[in-house]
Amino acid sequence: MSDALRDPVDHRYVPGHGDERYAVSAYDLDLLYVPETNRLSGIALISVRAERRLPNLVLDLHHRLRVDKVLVDGKRPARFTHKRDHLVVTLRQPLAAGDEVEVRVGYSGAPRTMPGLDGDAGWEELTDGSIVASQPHGAPSWFPCNDRPSDKASYRFEVTVPTGYAVVANGVPGRSRRSASTVTFTFEQAEPMATYLASVHVGRVAVHDEPDAPVHVVSSRELADQARHALRRQPEMLALFEDRFGPYPFAAGYTTVVTDDDLEIPLEAQALSIFGANFMSDDWDAQRLVAHELSHQWFGNSLTLQHWNDIWLHEGFACYAEWMWSEHLGDRTADEWARHHHARLAELPQDLVLADPGPDLMFDDRVYKRGALAVHSLRLTLGDDAFFGLLRDWTDRFRHGSVRTIDLEDLISERTDHEGSDLLGPWLRRPELPDLP
Ligand SMILES: [Zn+2]
User: 318: CA distance to ligand 1 center in Å?
Assistant: First the structure.
């Protein structure tokens, strides 16, 4: 077994992933992917800083990928083993706290999703291409990493695919390079990113830029008109959310990838979202998800939970953003949505503790709706000006950082006449559904 130090909360939600003994400042991933054979070859350069004395380094990597070579600062380590999704690198000399090393891992194989407590996640083959949907445990399906959400790092991607395919990844795209039979795409993700938000999409796609906004739509040519039509209000959503939540957090702007394949759910990644063709419609159930995924750029991607028990800090706010979009459209107000869902939740079992729902319920719809109700209760108590001011303080103070529920409660106590834990405690720490203020 490995010597990795697991956070007890994260270990409950995503067992066996992440190591508290070290942190990663940068991942540089050089990948070659052939969709026809689903073959991935990678070289990962990982900049590591020891947080304490470290005789070995434990990286998360799916056991189905084969590790060919490991170097630490250019030299072979004492040894390495790769078993049960852990690459354990035994160092020649233990690192002292504060030491930094660069670990180079060469690996290859046929990537696929990894099973977890809440289903499969990670690299997924499409009919003609691939996507990555890693939340919460799928990042090691395609690169070696310290897979804990509190360890955010910068990324660089260099991805080579056969001619005819294109690549979208997190970050600012660089110039692509062509050879006789391949194309290489590069992306720089400078703002810190959690491993589960790292994403690469490979497909026969092109970028369709929207004028006047840092919003890009990527799809096949066949889907382009439908995708642009269904996503045409994203610039307006972005403007609304910037007004309410503060400046958009990422230099790369926002790219929506639409796959030819239908997908069960859309998914957020940093500066990206991925939607299946089945969501490209004007129906409210599709449009609310367009707003939901965009709002995750603030709540989840810029401000990322430190531990998985606080998933409501992502999903409650993203669900509330749906209601805000409805209100902006002149349809149902956020208050009407809140009362509607409060009545529905009151009929359901009240056995969920929002601030620690457990791995089985972390993506339960009640986490989303009750989380949004907790947010709405703040708005009702504080009033619109103080409420939206608080949201902007929240996204500003913890921009690109890691957050816990207690950080939000402390901010409420500091910025308002209320104790944060008094306002939020009944929603977050007790199973019974409180009344709206
Ligand atoms: Zn969400």
Answer: 6
Residue 325 to residue 249: CA distance in whole angstroms: 19
First to last CA, the chain: 51
Please choose, from the candidates 25, 29, 60, 32, the residue with its C-alpha nearest in 3D space to the C-alpha of residue 44: 29
- CA–CA distance, 215 with 212 (Å, rounded to integer): 9
Q: Ligand 1 centre and the CA of 294: distance in Å?
A: 9
Query: How far is residue 88's CA from residue 2's CA, in Å, rounded to a whole number?
Result: 7
CA dist 239 → 94, 172, 242, 328 (Å): 50, 21, 5, 11
- Residue 68 CB contacts under 8 Å (≥ 6 apart), including other chains: 106, 107, 108
Instruction: Specify the fold of 1-204.
Output: Immunoglobulin-like (2.60.40)
Structure tokens belonging to residue 418: 């209320």
> What's the pLDDT score for residue 208?
74
Which residue, among 34, 13, 89, 11, has the nearest Cα to 56 in the 3D structure?
89
In which residue ranges of the chain is CATH 1.10.390.10 found?
304-428
- Distance, CA of 190 to CA of 178 (rounded, Å): 25
Q: How far is the CA of 421 from the centre of ligand 1 (A)?
A: 24
Query: What protein residues have CB closer than 5 angstroms to ion ligand 1?
Result: 315, 318
Which residues of the chain does CATH 3.30.2010.30 include?
211-297
pLDDT band at 206 (very low <50, low <70, confident <90, very high): confident
Query: For residue range 106-153, what is the model confidence (pLDDT) as tens digits?
Result: 999 999 999 998 889 999 999 999 999 999 999 999 999 999 999 999
18: left (phi over 0), alpha (psi -120 to 50) or beta: left
What is d(CA 182, CA 176) in angstroms, rounded to the nearest whole number? 10
Query: Is residue 213 within 8 Å of 238, Cβ to Cβ?
Result: yes
Q: Cα–chain-centroid distance for residue 16? A: 19
CATH 1.10.390.10 for the 304-428 domain, yes or no: yes
Which pLDDT does position 205 carry in this prediction? 87
Percentage of the residues of the chain whose pLDDT score is greater than 70 = 98
Distance 300 CA to ligand 1 centre (A): 8
Report the chain's mean pLDDT, rounded to a whole number.
96
pTM (global) more than 0.85: yes
For 309-326, how does the pLDDT look when each residue is reduced to its tens digit (9 = 90+)? 999 999 999 999 999 999
Residue range 211-297 forms a domain whose CATH class is alpha beta
Two tokens at 282?
């004007």
pLDDT single digits (tens) 225-257:
999 999 999 999 999 999 999 999 999 999 999
